[in-house]
User: Fold this.
Amino acid sequence: MNVQEKWEIVQQNIEEACLRSARNKEDVKVIAVTKYVSIQRMKEALEAGLDHIGESRAQDALPKAELLGNRGTWHFIGHLQTNKVKDVIEPFSYIHSLDRLSLAKEMNKRAEKLGKTISCFVQVNVSNEETKHGLAFNQVEDFIESLQDLPFIKVVGLMTMAPLVESPEEARPFFRELKQLLVLLQKRNWAHAPLQELSMGMSNDYQVAIEEGATFVRLGSCLVGE
Ligand SMILES: *Cc1c(COP(=O)(O)O)cnc(C)c1O
Assistant:
């Protein structure tokens, strides 16, 4: 299937998930995760009207961004090494994997140099798996608080990767918990952390994530997979 055909199926599924949960489909944005696909496929995605592009490795993403003339809005969704910040800060508008203060400080410094504000998601390890990056639930509030003095960082929301489970239903409690944490933290009314977005849901579980409040879903195989 070409990207356009896959995108039509995904749109149908999003619409149905929104109907089931009384949400507006306009509130769900789709990131086409292109880490495994060719430039040709990326062009197809852009031409199909997909504007948000997700990449997880700096060394793969940078040449692609250049070839595409920086078309699209770029999301860095993988683990980010501090020494790569200087490379990703310009082409990427969103970083989904903020999980430590040293990284935040480096991003703030590099963003200031460019005169831009970088939009970030704080990554949360909802399932407490040792192999996963991200903060534990009880660390998130203090961490966001500690970013207040970094004026070039804006914390737009929380991000998570659900554990690999057999049925997407099993991921539901994790998505629900992340939404609850977001609602709790919104009460802090932080100027530096508007916390309006939830980046959760991938090819195997995005319908459930949407039902639980995702505003950005990150879709690779089901949308642009070859
Ligand atoms: C690869 C990746 C995705 C997309 O995965 P699919 O299962 O192909 O949809 C989403 N989020 C992150 C962080 C990823 O690394």
Strands lie at 29-33, 52-55, 73-76, 92-98, 118-124, 153-160, 197-199, 216-219. The mean pLDDT is 96. Residues 18 and 25 are 6 Å apart (CA to CA).
